[in-house]
Design brief:
Two copies of one chain form a homodimer. Chain A is mainly alpha-helical. Helix content of chain A is 70%, strand content 0%. Chain A binds a DNA duplex (18 and 18 nucleotides) through residues 18, 42-44, 52-56, 58-59, 62-64.
DNA sequence: GTCTATATGACGATAGAC
DNA sequence: GTCTATCGTCATATAGAC
């Protein structure tokens, strides 16, 4: 389950066309898998979403499971990419704020990707287990060491780094994964920009003040 | 979808026996639905988990959907019960800490119930939607008013109350719903008591300090 | 009330014409 | 490469003996 993009094929070539089709199928499948889960997403529904007969999906991916794992694979890239700001030489408050902003933005712009990931983990990560115990564990250990450095230097309070990551993931992804609940409680058909701003502000406040860092945002922007 | 327990039938009566059977089926179904989702949980699997032929499940519940909604219904009671501590006359720090402890305990002791609920909401809450927009919305409004009172009295920082609830729900339930991910990252077959203690401490720290309240726990108990 | 045996339909997957 | 028609399997649900 490692993605490795060799040099992409020339635009318009047969291989390029195939890749376009595959990308288009994966894009439409994201929503279907997100809303119905793996078992609930039928090949008919996936085909309808892609605007193709279902035989074509089997032509491109072979099995439903292969289509699903290809989708998971494409989603993983997004998951890992946002931690760049967490580096020893950066300011803790700025680094954590940038990370939270990136994760909140991801929940807003890619809710279906988040839900596919959530559904997979919720059901025990049968396909993603080795990735979680591999790349993700390595990443968390690496970034935890950065946080431990900041703590040792007295630049932030002694928060348990892995659990801090669990908390940040949970708070930010909940706006995608549990969006139905949040919309119901707030009584909105869709979350507004202000809702997202308030959510981001709340997460920033809890994490930054919780880590003993400055929290400089305005109290309630746009209230 | 409103539960209303009239006076329970006498012990040993026919109605009592039936209720026992129903409770037993629901208890075993919780795990199956949690691990496989609604579509992934087959009546055969549900029957095997209950130790009964699948025809019996149809005898007691009629349809798979009815069995599922009965289970959801039984889980909702748990969801609403933990907010008692949040009342105007209580101390904000103690009230929030008690709520967080209750939610964390629930994640540890009833992970399957949490997952069934999470799966339902993740897929758009098709059966639970009216409850979310009804009872839960009412509860959040009521408790938010308590928090707003505390804020107005200067007893805590001006945190957006509904978003604070979303954050607390997310952080506490993640230990059940995303347990597979947490176990993988921490490299444990099961979370230890210490893992749970550290998770609880982290959530308490973020919420209490994030709200400008005292956070009195030891730095790292049992380290 | 309990269970075996089965009806009915939807599913993933494929064969084969184009 | 694309699509229609169809195969075999497994799902939910039920009929009917005990």
């Amino acid at each position: 389950m490692m993605r490795k993009e060799a040099e992409p094929p020339a635009t318009g070539s047969r291989a390029w066309q195939r890749r376009q089709r595959v990308a288009q199928i994966l894009a439409s499948a994201e929503r279907v898998f997100a809303e119905a889960g793996f078992e609930g997403a039928s090949m008919s529904a996936l085909a309808a979403a892609a605007g193709l007969p279902k035989a074509n999906l089997h032509y491109y991916f072979g099995t439903k499971e292969a289509l699903y794992t290809a989708l998971l694979d494409s989603i993983l890239d997004l998951w890992l990419s946002a931690t760049d700001s967490i580096r020893p030489e950066n300011d803790p408050a700025e680094a954590l704020a940038a990370y939270i902003h990136a994760k909140m933005r991801w929940s807003r712009t890619r809710p279906y990707a988040s839900k596919v990931f959530a559904n997979e983990v919720l059901h025990g990560a049968p396909y993603l287990g080795s990735y979680l115990a591999g790349d993700l564990r390595t990443l968390v250990r690496e970034k935890s060491r950065v946080l431990e450095g900041w703590i040792a230097e007295g630049r932030m309070d002694p928060v348990d780094p892995p659990h801090l990551f669990f908390a940040i993931w949970a708070m930010t992804q909940t706006y995608a994964d549990f969006g139905a609940q949040i919309r119901a409680v707030l009584d909105r058909p869709d979350l507004t920009a202000q809702d997202h701003a308030r959510g981001t502000e709340t997460v920033l406040r809890l994490v930054l003040k919780g880590c003993g860092l400055r929290f400089g945002a305005a109290e309630s922007p746009g209230k």
